[in-house]
Amino acid sequence: MKTYDLALIGFGGVNRTLAEIIATRGDALHSELGFGLRVVAITDLRLGSLVQAEGIDIDMALNIGANETFADHGGSRDTNNEAVIRSCTADIVCEATFTNPDDGEPAVSHVRWALESGKSVCTTNKGPVALRGPELSALAAGNGVHFEFEGAVMSGTPVIRLAKKMFAGLKIDGFEGILNGTSNYVLGRMESGLDLDAAIREAQDLGYAEANPAADIEGYDVRLKVLILANQLLGADITLQDVSCEGISSLTRDDIEQAARKGLRWKLIGSAKRSKNGAVTAGVKAVAVPLAHELAGISGATNAVSFNTDLLGPVMVSGPGAGRVETAYALLSDIIAMHHTSEVPSHA
Ligand SMILES: NC(=O)C1=CN([C@@H]2O[C@H](COP(=O)(O)OP(=O)(O)OC[C@H]3O[C@@H](n4cnc5c(N)ncnc54)[C@H](O)[C@@H]3O)[C@@H](O)[C@H]2O)C=CC1
Ligand SMILES: N[C@@H](CC=O)C(=O)O
Question: Does this model's pTM top 0.95?
């Protein structure tokens, strides 16, 4: 039976959880899915890098001490990302480093190095997909490998693949949705009486927030997701500058309480719409929606997006929008999709 060798670039919440899933459910996955998974390389800013073509001991990697690095286990203190990505024997590179909402780097380079060296990539990192998506997809196609990124929007909820496959034959002329788990969680906690900073700390502890939570609160994260959905699903050709962006940082508990007294609830909404002349307008802003609105009841880190289609009218997809396990599952679902689509070129 086929075994895919993986390189994990970034060993934080998401890729560690993927490693845990492989360690604890690997045998079951093998029999259920028809392939096995083995980790042959890991890089991380704190830990450095470790490459072992015969397979890394995942328990060791997960339990490495606070004062240790991979240098204490036969690896290096340095990430050596380019050398590791280009020359390791992985078939698939799982990119889960920090999202950079400005230019997507260094994750764009990580993805490019992998695709150039004939390796498939799955990523939960929104930067490369939003800011360099078409270029990287073309590079993947040119090299006969896969570039999958389901976790970049709504974590493990399969919104991109679902819409691409199951909305075939429909025209989508717009969408609106709650696309950030942290800000939605924070708004809910503020409605229960918590202040903004305390609510953000909870979202960080739960693994929802970006490394810099300003990306969640100021709307930059939703802006990337709107860009991804607009270009991937609406066939738009827009850039980051075309997506207006306002966050929730100016909302106070008083604003939230006043809205509640009027039967309204604040939500951070990302949307895009194609006008009759074909132009697509897109943006992110906080909106006080009536409680009867379809997005008003979406709570916690749950996300939801309602697509406006020609033959079905509005179709809403809802599910987890953040979380380590949910997002690690997105990577697994990308690997499953690669396995089902066509051969994944091997590097062993
Ligand atoms: N946690 C979540 O709910 C979701 C996260 N994402 C995205 O997935 C990615 C990973 O998220 P988390 O694991 O939660 O983040 P995290 O902050 O827990 O982990 C990121 C890891 O990447 C490492 N890293 C950063 N730059 C690096 C570099 N140049 N080379 C090697 N390692 C590097 C860091 O040391 C850290 O351990 C982020 O881009 C995030 O936006 C996407 C959907 C949901
Ligand atoms: N920080 C993000 C994680 C997923 O993209 C969020 O809270 O939605």
Answer: yes
Q: Is the ipTM value over 0.90, yes or no? A: yes
Would you state the CATH architecture of domain 2-155+325-341?
Answer: 3-Layer(aba) Sandwich (3.40)
Q: Over the stretch 93-152, which tens digit does the pLDDT of each residue have?
A: 999 999 999 999 999 999 999 999 999 999 999 999 999 999 999 999 999 999 999 999
For residue 50, the cross-strand partners are 42
According to CATH, the superfamily of the domain at 159-321 is Dihydrodipicolinate Reductase; domain 2 (3.30.360.10)
**Cα 234 to middle of ligand 1, angstroms:** 28
Mutate to test the pocket of ligand 2, among 124, 125, 208, 225 (most ligand atoms within 8 A of CB): 208
Domain ranges of the chain: 2-155+325-341, 159-321
Q: What are the residue numbers of the active site?
A: 225
> Three-state SS for 212?
coil
CA 121 to chain centre: 13
